[in-house]
Prior knowledge:
Number of strands: 12
Radius of gyration: 33 Å
CATH superfamily of the largest domain: Periplasmic binding protein-like II
Structural class: alpha/beta
Strand order of the largest sheet: 4-3-5-12-6
Strand content: 15-25%
Number of domains: 3
CATH architecture of the largest domain: 3-Layer(aba) Sandwich
CATH class of the largest domain: Alpha Beta
Oligomer: single chain
Largest sheet: 5 strands, mixed
Order of helices and strands: HHHEEHEHHEHEEEEHEHEHEEH
Helix content: 40-55%
Low-confidence stretches: none
Shape: rod-shaped
Amino acid sequence: MFFNKQVERFITVAEKGSISEAARALYLTQPALSREIHALEDKLGFHLFGRTKSGVVLTKMGQSYYEDMKKIYLLEENAIKKARALAYQEEKIIRMGVFIKIVELNSIQLGLQNFAKAFPDVTVQFIKTSFSFREKREMLLDNILDVFWREGVDFNYDDGALEFTELFQDPMCILVAEDHPLASREVILPEDLSGWTLTMPQTEEESTVAMIIQKLFSERYPQTHIEISNLEPSDYLRVQSGDELLLFGINFAKYIPHVRAIPFSDAFPKPKFGLITKANPSNIVRSFIRTIQASL
C-alpha cells in the first residue's frame, strides 16, 4: 500500500486493542511498534491511546482520528483495486484498426485463430478506420487503438513513438475475369493494359505504391485508365464481369472468388505489409504480434 506506514500500524493497534497482538500481526517487535505509535503521536500533537490492564484503548482524539483515517485507508485500497481491475480489463482487450476488413483479416486468419487458442480470455476488437495514417497514429497514441494494419513501400518514423512489425512483402498481380482476353497470360506487362480500366486499391496517404504506379502509367501508358478505389464489393463484381482489371497483392488475391490472378511486371516495388504499435506496447499486444508472425 502507498498509505503512510505509521497510520497503517496505528489502525492495526486500534483494531487489535493490543500492542503485542498488533506487533505479531505486523511482524514487528513490540518495542518497535510502540516507538512507531509514539512517533505518530508526537507528530499529531495528541495521545491516541490510553493504557488499560487488558491492553490499549483509543482516546477521544484517537477514536476520531481512527474513524477518519480508516475511511481514507479504505478509499485508497478501493481506488487501487479499481485501477488494477481496469488495467487487467485493458490487458484483456486488443483493439485493432483496419480499413479493408475482409482482405486484411483473411491474410492473418490463422494467426488470429492461434492467438484465440493461446489466449482464450483476450478479446480482439476490430475497429474500422480511415486510410489516413495520421489519424490512425493519433488513435494509437491516444490509446483508442492498440495496433493497426499498415501497408506501403517505405516507412519513415522520426519521432520514435511507433514500432512497425513487417509481416510479409507481397508481389503485385492483376485480377481479371476468368474469360477475360488477358486471362491466358502468364505475366501481364503495363503495355498489355492499354485501353482497359485498371483499378488500384486506396492506400494510406503516406504510402507511395499507388502514387508510383499512377505516375508511371500517366507518363508512359496514358491509354490505360487508372482509378483509385477504397474497394467496395461492386469493384470485385466489375472485375468478375470483365468490365475492368484490379491491381492486387498475390497474397490477398486468393480470397477473391471467380477471378484469375496473373503476376504483374516486377518492375514495380513490392509493398510491405505489417502491424503498427506504440514503441513500447503492452505484453499482451507483443504476444499478439508474435503469434501473428509465427502463424504466417
